Amino acid sequence: MKLINDIKDSTLRAIARKVEDDVPVSRQDAVYMLQTNNILDLATIAQFMRLRLHGDVAYYGVNMNLNYTNICELRCPLCAFSCNKGDKKAYLLSLDDIEKKVKIAVSYGIDEVHIVGGLNQDLDIAYFEQMFTSIKSIKPDIHIVALTAVEYDYIARKNNLSLEEVFRRLINAGVNAMPGGGAEIFSPEIRNIIAPKKISGKRWLEVMRTAHNMGLKTNATMLYNHIESAEDIADHLWQIRALQDETNGFKTFVPLQFHGKNTAIFQRHATTGYDDIRIYATSRIFLHNVPHLKVLWMYVGEKMAQVLLRLGVDDMGATYHDEKIVHSAGANTPDYGSEPYLRSLIKEVGLIPVRTTAAYNKIDTGNNNESRSH
């Protein structure tokens, strides 16, 4: 039976027809999907795309988070993690501190380290070069996913270097991929309220374009459930899709649920299950040219993450040993998940767990050929 035959809502049926015919949906379509109450129809379309792209596989990673400093000159209203230099909870990890943390995590069997931090004026590019070189010396095949577009822009400006030179030096030092943080929402009006000192959405896209042209694959993110509108979300998705059409450098899109505790942003309400489903399903349908859609189980909770694996998402996220940022903003999920736990979450919804890194190369665990549970 064709997808279109399962859709009752007439507008969603027209969207389903586009999906079946590989026709990109419009921004107006995205706004409709973000506001519809026909959740089952929307979910049917998103799951059709997920199965077409990935079948019954769901990816997960075994990694650690490394937040090298929380000292940041931006102090964005949306952020509960950052500090001024003199604050009691401010910290900066030395290269020796980082080496010790990574060695411990490597002893646990991680494949990847995810590195982001604040814009700390005491750090120059040599700190990052030495950090990445040191990490690679501990485990040469470790996958380093490091620094947001905001950080690369800052390093370039602070060191009077071009973006291309910064990327060249840090790739040579060991960076393998780039996270998608700092995108927030591209709307200038909203961005001016939630992150007024952060680089613009336009600049974020320029940095990503440079990274892609340098051969670096990246994630893209979007922060939702603060003060944005459906139109703001649709525009954000459209700009991601447009750059992907140009560069083909985004491998994964990651919606990030906003957590408002300890921030200066008034949160309208806690997100509902319907809100999350609309966001993820619409993202999967709209971003037809971005291969992977990731849910961070620490942001939405384990049960909602499981639901979303059946509604468009193919990547469960990772173990995230020592996660700090979302937990600073009030997330009540654990700050670490074991590999057996993540595999069980995936198998419970009838999917086949596959361990991978940000490059989506399958890592043989001896279990990757197992059948999904019933």
TrEMBL record:
Cofactor: [4Fe-4S] cluster
Cofactor note: Binds 1 [4Fe-4S] cluster. The cluster is coordinated with 3 cysteines and an exchangeable S-adenosyl-L-methionine.
InterPro entries per UniProt: Aldolase_TIM (IPR013785), CofH/MnqC-like_C (IPR045567), Elp3/MiaA/NifB-like_rSAM (IPR006638), F420 (IPR034405), FO_synthase_su2 (IPR020050), rSAM (IPR007197), rSAM_sf (IPR058240)
Binding site residues for [4Fe-4S] cluster: 72, 76, 79
Record keywords, A-Z: 4Fe-4S, Iron, Iron-sulfur, Metal-binding, S-adenosyl-L-methionine
GO molecular function, one term: 7,8-didemethyl-8-hydroxy-5-deazariboflavin synthase activity
Protein name: Radical SAM core domain-containing protein
Organism from which the protein derives: uncultured Desulfobacterium sp
